[in-house]
Amino acid sequence: MVLVWSALPALLQSVPHADNIEQLNWAHALQWGYIKHPPLPTWLLYGSIALVGPSAFLTYFLAMACVGATLLLLWCCARTLLDREAAALVVLLSSADYYLMGRGSFLNHNTVMLPFVAASAWAVLRIVQGAGWRAWGVLGLVQALGLLTKYQMAIVIAANALALLGGGAWRRPRFAAHVALAAAATLVPLLPHLLWLQAHAFSTFTYAGHSLLADLPPADRAAQALGFLAQQLGRFAPAVVAFGLALGLQRTAPALAPAASTAPAPLPAFRDVVPERVLALLALTPVGLIVLLALFAGVAPQNHWGASSTLLLPLLVVVLLRPARRPCVAAALTAVLAVQAAAVAWNVVAARRAPGFHHAFAAEPLAAMALEYWQGHTGGRIEVVIGPDWDAGAIALELPSHPSVLASGDRGQAPWVSDALLARCGALVLWRTGQDPASQIGADFAARLQFPVHLHTTVPHGKVSQIEAGILAPEAQGCPP
Q: What residues contact residue 184 under an 8 Å CB cut-off, 6+ apart?
């Protein structure tokens, strides 16, 4: 699954997803935070680029590697509650979640947070089963890593706390000491990021506040909440289809059913704990909190919040089903492979019949034109590209020097691009055709650009791919090649 959904966008798209480009734009320097988000996803990409160099495929593979890690961790969660066959059913149904298929290759903070959500659920399940210091330490650490990925992890932490209380963890010996350990393991890794926030005017909070502080009118809140829930049902439609297909296959092909002699080995039982209650709190609290925030606080729920908040639902469904009602692994595997194949085919057909901007922007030939244009007007290599974040990032990725990107001319997007670097090396300036350059790159850079030129080429289906370019002249000969 990781390999297929990493290769598919690499084969179909001429340019990575906007989220992947954003991460590539930021991965030129290690920071304790970036203008919109905490730092962990960018750190992962930065380290990977240091090993193998930047590429679109690398971003897809990293994202899908997070998906693969998530599925393995869901297996661990399931094995605390279920036999091996039922745990395999959980993993198979989870793999048909659209967030882990079609959107799994998006290298963004929602995808990278998924393994930390699953790992924290595993730690909670182990704790309520009697695990001690180590599980509490793991819980705190993965919660910290989740928060360093996306602040939405706070909702998952609330679900973890409710599940621990509902599971009776407070009745265990040394509960206060264990909580103190988990709290320290959560908070201490966040301190450098908190200092970064203070030094950067809490820019990530400002970005998050667009949704959290939307203050929706009362008349819109129910509609927004219902829209969010409907979107999550749509994301789970492939998993629901796979489940129904598996049941149908098992009924029509009895040979797929497991032999009666393969009874699962008994698992360690919960001690005075109802497992369904703990798991229900873990699985349902995140969605419930998002709906409550929309209804009572006027928060504008974003559909992609469902990636992490619905992750444990297949596990809950399988746990609640009686063993006789569960499809066997062979039927489920057949059904999930069919659904995955259909999803791949859908993406291929959509790319051919109705290509989107990711398929139709000719970044590679435009980058070659931009390089030839640059070399015709100035010496040295291109160290900085200034322009709209996605367009500039896509072209910068195809340039041999892999320059830094000053997205929209905003210094906050790339504080490592200094005035000294711009003066010494200059910059390739890009803006979208038909738009005022000042609105794309800022009035200061628009006033200083020289030698404007229109770059264009024709892509399949007869569409024209185009960009405007200019030069911010360097001092002397610029940066050496």
A: 140
For 12-60, the pLDDT digits (tens) are 998 999 999 999 999 999 999 999 999 999 999 999 999 999 999 999 9
Instruction: Quote the CA–CA distance of 67 and 64 in Å, as a whole number.
Output: 5
Report d(CA 128, CA 130) in Å as an integer.
Answer: 5
CA separation for the pair 160, 182 (Å, rounded) = 12
Rounded distance between C-alpha atoms, residue 101 and residue 6, angstroms: 10
Inter-residue contact 171 to 135 (CB < 8 Å): no
Query: In 298-353, which ranges are continuous DSSP H helix?
Result: 306-309, 313-320, 329-353
Distance CA 276, CA 468 (A): 59
| 370, two tokens | 């931009």
Distance CA 283, CA 306 (A): 11
Among 320-329, 385-394, 459-468, the range with the most confident prediction by mean pLDDT is 385-394
Coil/strand/helix, residue 382 = coil
pLDDT tens figures, 179-206 = 999 999 999 999 999 999 999 999 999 8
Q: What is the value of pTM for the model shown?
A: 0.93
Please give the distance of CA 313 from its chain centroid, rounded to a whole number: 18
Taking the alpha carbons of 399, 400, 402, 404 in that order, is the dihedral positive or negative?
A: negative
CA–CA separation, 84 and 199 (whole Å): 50
